[in-house]
Specification:
This protein is 56% helix and 4% strand. By secondary structure, the protein is mainly alpha-helical. The protein is extended and about 70 Å long.
């Protein structure tokens, strides 16, 4: 395959992958600059961590080599590496904010005689600052307070913090976070399988990855097709889940693996003016 054709195929693949991602980004007010920094971070981390891109797999990757591979300057690499990984930011914010709220609602030092959370001064011996120091795991008071105010779990007036809600975010927001985490996991694992299979020369060692579809299901048959796919896939996944649950009961195993099977339904309306070739 020629280089030009390969680049065209890769650009097509990138467009198909990026387009639904950009829909999610725009829907959640993520500007291009932020997404660009995320992609740069992925480039840098991959070039550093993946032994495939090292001159000597046994030696640590150099920043100069990463700059050559990614096309980014050493200055830009340093800038991006100072930004926390998106995953780390999400996990730390969620875990630390939740721990602070849990401590406020359960620690007797911060409860009244009816075991209800008391209003807390921002600073002092028994204050919001001391609560954060005790339960956040190292986060600053201001970062936790800003986050909890942002999701409307607390409100501050005259340097006194009052608990409004005991949960970190509203139920719809929680579900949205769970959905986004699921999107990332599902898409990431599918792409990991495709990348693994692309580099694995032995057919027997390639991971399971199959796809079934029809080109032209009439509108009047679409619901029947959907119902059949959903019901049959549910049966398969329940059977696999039961088997995996049995195999997962190995408490003394020293080496373990995270594995599974992902399935998804897709559909796209055909161009009505298109002709069958």
């Amino acid at each position: 395959m020629g280089l030009e054709k390969l680049n065209k195929l890769l650009s097509y693949m990138a467009y198909r992958i990026f387009r639904p991602l950009v829909v999610l980004f725009l829907r959640n007010s993520i500007p291009y600059k932020t997404a660009s920094d995320w992609l740069k971070r992925v480039y840098i981390d991959t070039a550093f961590d993946n032994t495939e891109f090292r001159i000597n797999p046994d030696k640590k990757q150099t920043k100069t080599r990463v700059a050559i591979l990614t096309g980014l300057s050493r200055v830009e690499i340093d800038r991006i590496l100072k930004i926390e990984k998106p995953l780390e930011v999400t996990e730390q914010t969620w875990n630390r904010a939740t721990k602070v709220l849990s401590g406020w609602c359960n620690d007797s030092d911060y409860l009244d005689s009816n075991r209800k959370p008391v209003k807390l001064p921002v600073y002092g011996d028994l204050s919001f600052s001391s609560l954060v120091e005790k339960y956040s795991g190292g986060a600053t008071m201001r970062s936790v307070l800003d986050e909890l105010e942002n999701v409307k779990s607390v409100e501050t007036s005259h340097d006194v913090v009052r608990l409004i809600r005991q949960d970190y975010s509203s139920k719809p927001d929680k579900q949205q976070l769970l959905n986004l985490e699921l999107y990332g996991t599902s898409a990431g694992e599918l792409l990991n399988t495709l990348v693994f299979n692309d580099s694995e020369l032995n057919e027997e060692n390639k991971r399971f990855q199959k796809m079934v579809f029809a080109w032209e299901i009439p509108d009047l048959n679409k619901q029947e097709a959907m119902d059949f796919i959903y019901s049959e896939t549910d049966k398969l996944l329940i059977s696999i889940d039961n088997k995996l649950s049995m195999l997962n009961d190995k408490p003394y195993a020293q080496t373990t693996y995270q594995l599974g099977l992902g399935t998804y339904y897709f559909e796209e309306k055909n161009n009505e003016t298109a002709k069958i070739i």
